[in-house]
Please model this.
Amino acid sequence: MPRPPDPAKRREILDQVREYVTLHGVTDLSLRPLAKALGTSDRMLLYYFGTKEQMVSEALDIYARRPLLRTRALLEAIGPPTTPADLRRFLEEVWQQFTDPQVRATLPLYFEVMSASVLHPHRYGPVMRNIVGEWTRLYTAVFRDLGMDAERAGTQATLLADASLGLLTAPLADGHWERSHKAFQALLDLLEPGWDIPG
Model:
């Protein structure tokens, strides 16, 4: 009976894979050059992960969800916002996470993988759908806690999640992060009056 892969070694490889694809992307990723750079063999990588796409998805998964996990931790620490002003402050803190140099440096790669998951779902799985879905569900819960009914909360959450994704994508192409930040503030200016729930 073959020995199962060593979990610690597997995690070490995933960290190395993440660093490699952050520098080189995934579009032209080939196992042999990757294995050589990691000091191992393509056969060993397949032993640990089965397929190249599974390996890349796993390598990026935990990092793609870091802002989401931080946001959930923030909600647990401060509790759900109870006023529109509190909600705005919370959303501004969430947005600031994406100014973290480590997060911003990996955004091009995540968008590459998310796009690949739309074009080739059989290879990379539903990465795009999962990430957008998780953010939308989180925001829906926050709006529900504020007192909105399910339909309205879902609409507000979808608008916020989808618009934020767009505002993070555009500056990767043109470099105008400050303009994107101002646009996010303008989005909140438009949305905040609709968050007031009649008593």
Remarks:
- The CA atoms of residues 97 and 176 lie 17 Å apart.
- The radius of gyration is 20 Å.
- The chain is about 80% helix and 0% strand.
